[in-house]
Amino acid sequence: MTESVLPSKILPALRRLHTHYARKNEEELVTIIDACKVFIKLETAFDGWNGGMDGHDVLLFVPHEVMGLIDLDNQQEIFDRIREDLGKALSNLETEFINAVFINPYDETDREYQAAIPFSLEPRVDPKSTGLWAENSLRLFISHRDEHKALAHKLAEGLEPYGVDAFVAHDAIKPMKKWQQEILNGLMTMEVMLILLTDDFHESTWTNQEVGFALGKGIPILSVKIADLNPQGFLSTEQALKVKKGSDISISIPKIHNAIMQEIGQKGRLKVIMIEAFLNSTNYSDTIASLTRLTETVDKITDKEFYRIVKGYSDNGQLYSCGGIHNKGNWFKRYLENATGKKLDFKNGTIKEIIEDDIPF
Questions:
Q1: Distance between CA atoms of 138 and 256, rounded to whole angstroms?
Q2: Alpha-carbon distances of 57 from 30, 34, 43, 204, rounded to whole Å
Q3: Do residues 16 and 32 make contact, with C-beta atoms less than 8 angstroms apart?
């Protein structure tokens, strides 16, 4: 056969899958690709269609702790899923195809492992080790000009109750830390970038480099336009979220949060964070505020989330005894019924689903 082109295309294809799975909130697949070393086993199959096509196996080697995430009963489904998705990402291969994908644990004695290429040539940075991010939050890097740091800080504060932890360089970097390394740590561990697009944004080497870093990693980017300037360069084809110039950015927080959820494709994850914030309310004011945020941004509740709410509600007296969420025409009850499509009965600190057989005739 002629020389295979697959080895030169496999890493870009895996990067596409990494971004795709991250947008779909498929964290197990993201972790597998992020940690893997890849080896191509050439000419393991042949298809005589269309003049003949050579098939190759893709071997992904992952650390033992990552291998432990793969359920034995479902591992073939995962292998087949990655194989199919690689085929989509490599659809322009005319005389080659992915025959199979296998995932194996690291093995220093295995010659194929020894020849495998790491998915990322950069050392992996554990977000927890940086000390920059809050746990169980979405990691958002705000790229901004120094002159607008107060606005960036206000935006970060407004997003925090929605389960978004924002890196703002002037706030996140502790005294005596090397600021360039801390910014790099933030860039390497962010999940999404938000650009505070002011008229002077593209005049800074730093902000341009930050955007370039996000583009190179395939990180989702959201532009929030607070001036007349439109996104430039590779961002020029993307629609920016407009915030009225001179207005209080706090008013736009729910809209910005919704845009972040749509951009990263992780609505389910952020929804869970906000549900937990509501269920863990410590006072009536917190209960009302967290329910307000939930109703502003979440219009559908799954059965799993519903049963979690039922249990959390009965366990927290700040919820079932809070008149502020039960008055106003049974605000919480109406919201939960609309979001779940269920008929519900609230009584004695519990939530019960009304089944048709339970309705007296």
A1: 14
A2: 20, 19, 8, 46
A3: no
Distant-in-sequence, close-in-space partners of 123: CB < 8 Å, separation ≥ 6: none
Bridge partner list, 140: 166, 192
pLDDT digits (tens, 9 = 90+) for 227-246: 777 777 767 666 678 887 77
Please state the rounded mean pLDDT for residues 254-273.
75
Whether pTM > 0.70 for this model: the answer is: no
H/E element, 222: strand 221-225
315 and 324 Cβ atoms separated by less than 8 Å: no
122: pLDDT strictly greater than 70: no
Instruction: Please name the residue ranges forming H helices in 116-246.
Output: 127-130, 149-159, 169-172, 179-189, 205-217
Q: Are strands 37-47 and 117-118 parallel, antiparallel or unpaired?
A: antiparallel
φ and ψ at residue 30, rounded to 5 degrees: -60, -45
Query: Which residues 6+ apart lie within 8 Å of 306 measured at CB?
Result: 336, 340, 342
Where does residue 50 rank: exposed (0-12), middle (13-18), buried (19+ CB within 10 A)?
Answer: exposed
Token pair recorded at residue 162: 């929605």
